[in-house]
Amino acid sequence: MAVVVTGASKGIGSAIAERFLREGARVGIMDADVAAGQAYAQACASEGKPVFFAAADITDPGAVKAAAADLVGALGGLQVLVNCAGAVRGESLEETNDETWRWNVDVNLNGAFSVSRAVLPQLLTNKRSAIVNVSSVNALMTIGVPAYSAAKAGMLALTRSFATEYASRGLRANAVLPGTIRTSAWDDRIEKNPGVMEKMNAWYPGGAVGRPEDVAAAVAFLASEEAAFINGSSLVVDGGLTSGHHRMIQDFL
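The structure assignment produced for this chain is given below.
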């Protein structure tokens, strides 16, 4: 099986790539961070893992098309695309101007569309193929970062569109919606507020935020034959965060 993962040089994307490698897949990674992408691919190569890297800013459709062609050629085909690349700016509506809004939509929604469109012809050459989009629980509830949240909600609509339009040609499309996942993206916040993770843990019914491996497991499942009849779904991977008002129950009952 050949898999392309965007944003795979670190964090959740890296964990997803590692999961597919353990399952025997050939993996291509597309990332705007050239140094990190090359370092990751070289580290994998030194361990005999079949990983290929192509640099691309996913907000640049031309760069995406070229990188996708390189990866598909190196992999010898493609069965699975995982759109994981994403980033966030603007903590509140008051902090969000037109430029910030457009940037979030470009990175978190338009980029996924561009990558999906670039590899779609190759995916459709297979009897069975899959797209898995990494959205967020921010698509379901208001917890700040409004432009990012809107883009991640749009990703769910995009997922359903691919799922509906291309199912008859063997392509499934699903999304995973992670809650808080402890990655290096939290390092700056932790440096400014050393107790922030302890506060965040308290919002989760199980008392802890998630790990990148938790998301990777869900992605691998949705891409697998075991999920052959799952199409157009949104799988929440959040430890129960969106299942109810955990903190309210603790405070008032």
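Interim note for the steering committee: The chain has a mean pLDDT of 95. The CA atoms of residues 89 and 129 lie 33 Å apart.
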